[in-house]
């Protein structure tokens, strides 16, 4: 009898008191539409200046709700909406460039995670388009990096224009924020540049994309530190 009781206590200790797994943070949502670096022509007219655009993304694991965040690139005006669904719509000005992302949330944890950021033009009366702001690829924002054997770090980006008429890329790079030194003016096909750096120093840089119509867009300022 005593042996049975002992076995029961051991069983209860192992299985009855097993701790529940901690809730998992949400996974990153994958964007679907509007397409990256495109002109969105599916907006439903609201009036002469506005159309309602529907956004879609894939469902992500461990996610209870999503926050859609849409920014007018020209005015920096931000619209947000929360939804448990993988689609939502917002009224947007016609002929304006926008960027958008989706933030995943889990009600049981504080962690959130954002999707990639995509850009597009909302269709309107425009016949020419300014370039999209260059997408910074490396170094990542606030990344700590090692210089190479030549005491250099490679900056890289991706530039896009619906008209395919990018004429030049200007790279500003310095220890000041915002960067004040024009490091190089490059051809439209350029997507990287090596810059000289010093260990223990923080640098700031941005990319200005210019097209044949005289339009120019700014990537925004990025920073990195050299180890």
Automatic annotation (TrEMBL):
InterPro entries: FN3_sf, Ig-like_fold
Gene3D superfamilies the UniProt entry points to: Immunoglobulins
Tree of life domain: Bacteria
Protein name, as recorded: Fibronectin type-III domain-containing protein
Upper taxonomic lineage: Bacteria, Pseudomonadati, Bacteroidota, Flavobacteriia, Flavobacteriales
